[in-house]
User: Which sequence fits this backbone?
C-alpha cells in the first residue's frame, strides 16, 4: 500500500508576482493532498503579461542537475508535470525527466499562447518541438489557441459544432496522449466550455463554463493543476474536469467581484479551501 501522498515533479517557471506557474501550482496541489517538488525552469519577478520590464534568471542547467540528484536518492515520482518553458534545451531536459520516470503520469500543459496568438518567447522552432513532449504525454491541457498550434491549423475563431469539437480532441489524442482537455471552447450551442476525450474509453465530455468578460493570467495553470491533482487522487476524466472548471470559475468570479487589476491574477488564497472538498465540481455530460 502506498502510504504517502502522491508526489509530483513540477517543471515550470517561478514568477514572483501575478499568480501564475509555480506560485499557483504549489498551493493548489498541496491543498489537494499532493506533494509538489518544484523544478523552476526560470525565476521571474512577475509573469510577462503587461507588468513592464521583468527581472529574469534562467535556470536551464538546474533541470538536469535536479534529475541527477533525485536519481541518486532513488526518489519516486507518481507524476511529471511540465508547463511554461524557456528554450528548446529545456524541452530536451523535460524529455529526460519523462524517460527517467516511465511509470509516472506524464502531464504536459503545452503553454504557447492564448487568444489566437503565440506568447512572445515561443518561437516557431520551439512550438514545433513542443509536439515531442505531447507525444510522450498521458494528459495534455491546451487552450484552443494551443490546440490549433499543435495540429498546425489556423486558429479557429468561430464557434465549434460538437462534431468539430470531437474531431479536434481525437486528432490531438492521435499525437500521443490518452487524455486530452481543451479549455475555453465556444460551442455552437452558445456555451463556453471545457471539452475532454478519454481515448482508452473512447468517451468525449463537456463541462460548460459561466462566462465573465475578463481574462486573468495563471488560470490555465490552476486548471491543469486541479486536473492533475484530481487524477492523482483517483478521479475519472469528467469528474476531474468538473472539479477543475468549478475551482477556476470560483477564483475568477471572486476576483472579478473585487474589480482587481486582471494582471495581478486570481485571488486563489481566498478560494483554496474549496479544493479540500472533493465533491466540489461542476456537472459534466457527454459531448
Ligand atoms: O500562465 C502562463 C505563464 C507562465 N509563466 C509566465 C508567463 C505566463 C503567461 O503569461 O508569462 C512567465
Assistant:
Amino acid at each position: 500500500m502506498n502510504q504517502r501522498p502522491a508526489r509530483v515533479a513540477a517543471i515550470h517557471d517561478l514568477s514572483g508576482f501575478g499568480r501564475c506557474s509555480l506560485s499557483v501550482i504549489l498551493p493548489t496541489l498541496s491543498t489537494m493532498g499532493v506533494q509538489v517538488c518544484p523544478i523552476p525552469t526560470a525565476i521571474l519577478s512577475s509573469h510577462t503579461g503587461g507588468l513592464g520590464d521583468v527581472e529574469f534568471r534562467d535556470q536551464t542547467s538546474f533541470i538536469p542537475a535536479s534529475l541527477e540528484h533525485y536519481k541518486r536518492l532513488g526518489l519516486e515520482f507518481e507524476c511529471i508535470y511540465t508547463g511554461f518553458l524557456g528554450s528548446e534545451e529545456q524541452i530536451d531536459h523535460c524529455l529526460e525527466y519523462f524517460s527517467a520516470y516511465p511509470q509516472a503520469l506524464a502531464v504536459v500543459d503545452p503553454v504557447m499562447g492564448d487568444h489566437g496568438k503565440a506568447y512572445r518567447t515561443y518561437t516557431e522552432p520551439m512550438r514545433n518541438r513542443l509536439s515531442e513532449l505531447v507525444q510522450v504525454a498521458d494528459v495534455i491541457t491546451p487552450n484552443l489557441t494551443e490546440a490549433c498550434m499543435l495540429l498546425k491549423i489556423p486558429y479557429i475563431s468561430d464557434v465549434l459544432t460538437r462534431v468539430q469539437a470531437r474531431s479536434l480532441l481525437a486528432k490531438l489524442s492521435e499525437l500521443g496522449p490518452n487524455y486530452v482537455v481543451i479549455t475555453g471552447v465556444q460551442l455552437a450551442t452558445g456555451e463556453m466550455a471545457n471539452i475532454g476525450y478519454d481515448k482508452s474509453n473512447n468517451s468525449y465530455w463537456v463541462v460548460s463554463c459561466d462566462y465573465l468578460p475578463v481574462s486573468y493570467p495563471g488560470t490555465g495553470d490552476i486548471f491543469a493543476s486541479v486536473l492533475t491533482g484530481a487524477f492523482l487522487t483517483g478521479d475519472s476524466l469528467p469528474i476531474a474536469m468538473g472539479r477543475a472548471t468549478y475551482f477556476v470559475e470560483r477564483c475568477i468570479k471572486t476576483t472579478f467581484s473585487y474589480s482587481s487589476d486582471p494582471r495581478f491574477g486570481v485571488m486563489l488564497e481566498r478560494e483554496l479551501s474549496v479544493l479540500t472538498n472533493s465533491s466540489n465540481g461542476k456537472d459534466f455530460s457527454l459531448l
Remarks:
- The pocket of PXL is lined by residues 13, 15, 20-21, 44, 47-49, 84, 111, 217-218, 220-221 (CB under 6 Å).
- Residues 39 and 115 are 28 Å apart (CA to CA).
- The mean pLDDT is 97.
- The chain has one domain: 7-286.
